[in-house]
Amino acid sequence: MAEHTTTAGRIEASLGVKPGERGLVRWVTALFAVCFAAVSLVLNSADALFFLRFGVEFLPRMILASGLVVMVAILAYMAGLGRLGARRWSPWAFVAIVLLLAVERAGIAIEAPGIYPVVWLGGQVSIMVVLTALWNVAAEVCDTRQAKRLFPLLASAGIAGGIVGNLATGPLASALGTENLVVVAAMLFAVASVLATGVGKRFFISAEVDHSPLLAGLRHGIKVTFSSRMMRLVAFVGLAMNILFFLVAFPFSDAVAASFDSEPEVAGFLGYFSSFATAVTFVVSLFVANRLVNRLGVVATMLIVPVVYLAGFATWVIAFDLRTAAAVRGAQWVAVNAFGSAAWGALFNVLPRRHRGTVMAFVSAVPVQVGTSISGLILVAGTELSETQRFLTGAVLAATTCVVVWRMRRAYTQALLDAVKGGFVEVFSAVGAGFRSMTVGAEAIDAVQEAMSEEAPEARVMAVTMLASMDGAPREAGRLLHEAFEDGDPRVRTAVVHALGKGTLDDPLVLDAAQTDPSPTVRLAAVEELARRDAKDMLSQDVLSDPDPRVRGRAAGLIGDLNAIASLLESTASSDQLAGLEAVASLPSHEFELSRFLGHESRRFRSAAGIAMASTDPTAVIPLLDDPTPSTRRAVADRLADNDSGRAALRAVLEDGSVRATDAALSALVREPGSADGLVAWADGETDRVAYLRHHRLALSEAGSELPEAAFLLRLLEMRERTLSRWAARALTSTASSDTVETVMRGISADDSDLRSQAMEALETVADRHVARRLLGMMEDDRRDEESARHISSLQTLAEDFDPWIRASATKWLAAELHSRLTGLHRATREDPSTLVRDSLQGLSPPQMREPKTLTPMECVIALSRVPLFSDLDPEDMERLAEVTSQRRYGADEMIYREGARGEEMLIILQGEAVASRSRDDEAKVIRTFGPGDHVGELALLRGQPRVSDVVAGPEGAQALALGKAEFQAILEERPEVALIMLGTLADRIAAG
């Protein structure tokens, strides 16, 4: 049994099925197989009964009528989908088909008038509703990347079911009668209902139902479809493909009906033809389609279908008989079912999951069925045309469809990006657009004017900002801005100066007055506006001697007054020096010696000096790319990317720089157009590095060690994998816009699996395919490497890695493990009854466990890595954090913080406990107990108020790290993710009471 399971697992793995997906795949493939077997029986029996008991000559009119009938049926499916949701409605859709088939069989039994057209239309309803329901289910249980991998397999399962159904058609028709094939099909659909229920209960991610009426669902489908360029193209392709389908199917049916005389012969030929075509389709789908989809992509695979139609019509123009009819129909069968079916379903997975079912049903109900009706009209009107003319018409439509599908490539990528963007909450992204598009009328002006008389200056600043964006009433807005410049608050006047650059107010008098404003902030804004305009002639001489060094320096930089800048740099006042550095940074070139500022204790000095020297001495500022402050690294790297020598220095950093330096260099290169040459090859190398680290991480994880050093190294390797993967992805998308890169990277890092899969698919469409596939394969692969080395071997290898943190961590784990083993070996030999064994370690002293009073920097980082507040920080950041903390040890019940005392630090508990309590009516009430990984005392820092409780060490004492107020605020400023985690912790504490 174990061997069978292993064999089955290997087969599934070869088909792209991951271990965690096996249950899902088995249930859904069973559903597809049963449904396609039933559909094959229904279609074969319906065609045979209609062709021979009613007349194939009426088929064009039936095709025309089927468009409307099937549209109504799918709209009914949409109604149920909106009321019950896909999980509950899908089984009932199959039950509805069972009832339809039962009614048809009863009608045949009583020879009801017009029953055979009803049976044929029922077959069309069955196949379209079943296909819509099946791919709806598949879209609900698969994300975008799974759809690309698994949809060809699901299509293959359906084809396999179709083979069984088609092979059984002839024998069953002979044994039971053609009319009783619908009874067998009804039984299979009943089984499908049970399977759909099981799939819904086990694998549906969301059971949300909006209970919307049919018209609301229809409106929603129309809105989503026509608001997306991708879905508009999909709708057209669905319409065109259905026309092409019937333009091929009718001539084939006509040729078959003309070639045979009896029902069994027609049913038998159709059954065997379908069986052969389906068998070929199964092989192609199982062994070719999935590989082709992964290699070419969804859209390129979809292009195969109209190309086959085009070739088929070209063949018929040359010669049309039963053989060429069967050949073209067979090629169409393979193309539609092996390639088109899976690709068609995957196209809808670019949409957010909540839209897929509705849009898929709408496209199937309206555009596709309109195509059916149009094909009927063409066939009815086509009786006046020759065969060649009809085939040429089909060829023209097929060629047009090829062009449209080809254009879907860019739309596909954009739809993925739109879906990823839609998965994030963007609060501020549209603020500017909102102001610009604001309707400007009397009411808007009155509202802004009222806001400008508000007591709070913040409201007046916002009113000025809004006025600056009003294009519809410049005269009135300009008057109000003039009045606002008389405001007593400098923040409002500064906002007015900034409005000068928006075009609403362009008054030189205001700019002149701003240069002599009492507030240095206003004067600085005026000089910056002049610099933006490059209006040196409007600069007042007064600002060159301004008492504020920032204003003086900015003015000197604007006019290139090197003496004034030198005076600032040579001053002993730090504010003058900083202003001088910022002035130098605004110059296109200079000869000032600024290297003394590169190691300044202030990040503002280091950043300004680095920016100023980036254009003159790129090599000298490269060390700043490893600066502890992220903002400094980013600013210097961005300035280096502005010139050729700086870009060359940045590319050198990619080869041998630290993690922080590489991150800054890469970010700057991909943001600067034309500076990212050669990054694809670099990304390929980083992908090799990801594979190397992953191999050793999987080997080490199998060891199952509980050592803190082990947990740290495993976490470090995983973080490095993520970082390198992110770098490779950024490098691969370097030719895309910065907005595209940002969207893809945010999506890949998202917690939502569907959003992440859409971002990964977008990455593959905008990046180098070869490297992207390797990278994405490792991102998605969660299997263990069966050939992983023993963990000691991996530790020894990693202990020689070029990354110092990996080297140190591997050495630490290896030393701890060898220490433990050697200690155990000494213990065992001492107790061994054999003298020979006891003497074997003579001369080798047992290792001594060091009991340090103070943690080493490495031990401190390992301890911090176990604190949730800092668990997502890179070790380089934790090392810096360890440097600015103080280690504390408290004895049992020792007072740590006293209620009412001033809060100047917070504690991070490493070992032991800290107990917070309040004294009320001479009785101490315990509020909370803090254990390892908790932080305590941060509220006093955040609020700037005294301690609200006593905090004492627990009964066994406590070991902690103390973080000062300034360092704490710097961390919150530089690492917003720490603030978010802290807010979450505080919310949990409040919720817990």
What is the CA–CA distance across the termini?
A: 54 Å
Quaternary structure: single chain
- Helix content range: over 70%
Shape summary: globular
Number of strands: 6
Main sheet properties: 6 strands, antiparallel
- What is the H level of CATH, i.e. the homologous superfamily of the domain at 15-422? MFS general substrate transporter like domains
**What number is the mean pLDDT?**
81
Give me the number of helical elements: 43
Unreliable segments (pLDDT under 50, ≥5 consecutive)?
Answer: 1-5, 427-440, 785-789
CATH architecture of the domain at 15-422: Up-down Bundle
**Can you identify the CATH class of the domain at 15-422?**
Mainly Alpha
Q: Using the coordinates shown, work out and report the CATH topology of the domain at 15-422.
A: Growth Hormone, Chain: A
Secondary structural class: mainly alpha
Could you list some keywords that capture this structure?
single chain, 993 residues, mainly alpha, Growth Hormone, Chain: A, Jelly Rolls, 6 strands, disordered N terminus
Give your account of this protein's structure:
This protein is mainly alpha-helical. Among the domains are: 15-422, Growth Hormone, Chain: A; 708-830, no CATH class; 874-991, Jelly Rolls (Sandwich). The chain contains 43 helices and 6 strands. Strands 1, 2, 3, 4, 5 and 6 form a 6-stranded antiparallel β-sheet that branches. The two termini are 54 Å apart. Residues 1-5, 427-440 and 785-789 have low confidence and may be disordered.
